[in-house]
Amino acid sequence: MEKTDRKERCLVLTLHSAYYDDSIPNWRMPSVTVGQHILVLVVQGKVAYRINHEDIGAEKGDLLYIPIGTVRSAENGEPVPHRKYSALFHHSCPPGVVPLFDNNVFTKKRISNIDYVAKRFEALHREWQEEKPMYPFIASGILQELAGIASRATEMTDISPTKWMLAEKMQRHIREHYREPLNVGEMAQLIQRSPNYAISLFKEVTGQTPVKYMQQLRIAEARNLLVGTDFTITEIADYLGFYDTSYFYKTFKKLTGLSPSAFVARREP
To answer: Domain of life, per the record (predicted)?
Structure first.
């Protein structure tokens, strides 16, 4: 209960401004003490930062958290101008709610799903530029998602960019073929590694096996189909590639805590 109460006391994140630096020649920022918290995603090239009098390099795939009060300067890295998104914001979250915000320290982490995170930053930047109705509410939601992604990255062990890239290739393959039987050989061939290495790497990076990841995708879609269509449970099981309905029941209950029929009954008015 205490954990839930702390989360409920976390106020909405408030966007101050959002920027997209698109290959600006001779780009540089003088040394200042920042007045807002900042999230930065580098999507191309390199940036040479100086954070609290320490030189920090950032490149494509790096997600940075620069807390309020940080002394920061920056300029283009070599050899070409960089591209990056920046979001400046305020928050009032107490300690223990969002790990990223604890201790108020600079953090740099590699992320595996850069394409998705870049799209979320792009959406945040667009909301700030266009200022359509409800944009502060929408921007706050995107900010919270990005803070969650960054917090999750800070809690994971350091993994090489190559491993992140290979794991993302396998995840993408499973997402595109999750209704089909899982073929570890195809995944291994995709990353040009052995099947045993592919499974081991996938688990190291994602914290779960390829089979469990596929099952999560299937059950997530099953939940949508159960409440959004008139498909029978047998039809859903067959559509999602389960070899029999009893196995679908078992998997659904294992991941949701409810049987498919109980899940539907709970959602009915």
So the answer is: Bacteria
